[in-house]
Each structure stands twice: as structure tokens, then as C-alpha cells.
TrEMBL record:
Organism: Natrialba taiwanensis DSM 12281
UniProt-recorded name of the protein: Glyoxalase/bleomycin resistance protein/dioxygenase
Segments traversing the membrane: none
Gene3D superfamilies associated with the record: 2,3-Dihydroxybiphenyl 1,2-Dioxygenase, domain 1
Keywords: Dioxygenase, Metal-binding, Oxidoreductase
Gene Ontology molecular function: dioxygenase activity; metal ion binding; methylmalonyl-CoA epimerase activity
């Protein structure tokens, strides 16, 4: 049986109609906004908020005039929990461990500074899990820098190679 590599909750993603309209609730809870950008997919904007020393929330809102998975989600469900992102030290090893446990993944994507895949919500938890492996350079061109990582660094992987 494959062993799951180092893993931790990176953030909880909340689907909203508008980041500016929704973030007041997060500010009232004591969150600090550290980042906002348009997605690599070009269909939504995401913003990251830190609460305390390690808790992080993400608001995701569709870009005006787009039809996407997010607009479909909001039409079906309204605003609310969209996904839980789990940061893994080694995405390939995580996929192997899930496969060995009979849990399949979908929509694998490779971007320049991260890799991701998803466990669909058609599982007994009903939750969409995003598994994400940060790669070297992820924080370099973003104003929040290393604050984008829980505790300021990617999850330790135990490997000698640079991430």
C-alpha cells in the first residue's frame, strides 16, 4: 500500500458572487487580506485571507461575463463552501496513495509553479478536495510572497531536491 506524503490543509475555498461584497464578513472575523489575482484559468478571481497564525480562507468569484464551473456552482448552490485545498509535498505520491485506497482523482493540471488535482465531491464526504503541490517560484512574483504558504513555507517533503 502506498503511503500518503506530508499533507496539510492549505485553505478553504468559498464561492461568492463578488469578492468585495463578501470580504467584509472575513474582515469582521479578524482576517487579513494578503493576496488577490485572476486565476490561471481566466474565469474567476481569487483572494487569500489569513486568520491567526496558520488558518487561511479563499474567496473565489466569477469574472464578469464568464460562464464556468464557478458560475454553474453558484447557480446550483448559491454562495458557500466550494472546496478544501490540501497541500501535499509530492502530488504523484499522493495520487498513488489515493489510488491504492480506491479514491480516484480528476482534472490533473500542471502550471509553472504548482501542480493540482481534485477528488470530486461524489465521494462519501461530499467535499471537493483540491490537492496541490507548490513548486519553486510560486511566491516569487506575488506581493504576499511567502505569506501565501502556511507558516511561511511549503509543507516539508523530506526530499533533497529544491521545490
Amino acid at each position: 500500500m502506498s503511503t500518503m506524503p506530508a499533507i496539510r490543509v492549505d485553505h478553504v475555498g468559498i464561492a461568492v458572487d463578488s469578492v468585495p461584497d463578501a470580504e467584509g464578513v472575513l474582515f469582521a472575523l479578524g482576517c487579513e487580506k494578503i493576496h488577490e489575482e485572476r486565476s490561471e484559468y481566466g474565469e474567476f478571481t481569487w483572494a487569500t485571507y489569513v486568520l491567526g497564525d496558520a488558518s487561511r480562507l479563499e474567496l473565489i468569484a466569477p469574472d464578469d461575463g464568464t460562464n464556468s464551473f464557478l458560475t454553474d456552482f453558484l447557480e446550483r448552490n448559491g454562495p458557500g463552501l466550494h472546496h478544501v485545498t490540501l497541500e501535499v509535498a509530492d502530488l504523484e505520491a499522493a495520487v498513488e496513495a489515493l489510488d491504492a485506497a480506491g479514491v480516484s482523482v480528476v482534472d490533473r493540471q500542471t502550471f509553472e509553479h504548482w501542480h493540482e488535482t481534485f477528488v470530486t465531491p461524489q465521494n462519501p464526504t461530499g467535499v471537493l478536495f483540491q490537492l496541490m503541490e507548490y513548486r519553486e517560484g510560486y511566491a516569487d512574483d506575488r506581493a504576499a510572497g511567502d505569506r501565501l504558504f502556511v507558516h511561511g513555507a511549503p509543507v516539508p517533503d523530506g526530499r533533497d531536491s529544491a521545490r
